[in-house]
């Protein structure tokens, strides 16, 4: 089981979402603690430990630190903005 850590910027983005997406994204993030690489996740290019999961039109960018069993959530946002 992995510990979850959400960066301040990701928290701010999460608070701005509608309640429907907020609930869906929180559920997906909680599932990451059991399975850090769920079906459908993709590794980001040029980043060794960074991954992304899809939640509708939104993306969650996170890092898996295997040695410490930590998952850090860095960005949560709409697919058109999150990679910038």
The count of helical stretches stands at 2
CATH superfamily: RelE-like
Strand percentage lies at: 25-35%
What is the terminal-to-terminal distance? Answer: 31 Å
Low-confidence stretches: none
Most strands sheet: 5 strands, mixed
State the order of secondary-structure elements, H for helix, E for strand: EHHEEEE
CATH-derived architecture: 2-Layer Sandwich
Highest CATH level, the class: Alpha Beta
User: Would you tell me the structural class of the helices and strands?
Assistant: alpha+beta
Secondary structure tally: strands: 5
Q: How many separate domains?
A: 1
Give the % helix. Answer: 25-40%
- Coarse shape: globular
CATH topology: YaeB-like fold
Question: How would you describe what is shown here?
Answer:
With 84 residues, the chain is an alpha+beta fold. It has one domain (3-78): YaeB-like fold (2-Layer Sandwich). Helices cover 26% and strands 35% of the residues. It has 2 helices and 5 strands. It has a 5-stranded mixed sheet. The protein is globular and about 35 Å long. The mean pLDDT is 94.
Q: Briefly, what is this?
A:
The protein is built from two helices and five strands, in the order βααββββ.
Keywords:
5 strands; 35% strand; alpha+beta; 26% helix; 84 residues
Secondary structure elements and their pairing?
Elements: E1 3-6, H1 8-15, H2 19-32, E2 42-43, E3 50-55, E4 58-65, E5 70-78
Parallel strand pairs: 1-5
Antiparallel strand pairs: 2-3, 3-4, 4-5
């Amino acid at each position: 089981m992995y510990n979850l850590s959400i960066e301040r910027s990701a928290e701010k983005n999460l608070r701005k979402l509608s309640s429907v997406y907020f609930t869906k994204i929180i559920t997906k993030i909680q599932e990451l603690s059991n399975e850090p690489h769920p079906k459908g996740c993709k590794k980001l290019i040029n980043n060794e430990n960074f991954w992304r999961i899809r939640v509708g039109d939104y993306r969650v960018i996170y890092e898996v630190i295997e040695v410490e069993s930590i998952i850090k959530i860095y960005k949560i946002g709409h697919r058109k903005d999150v990679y910038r």
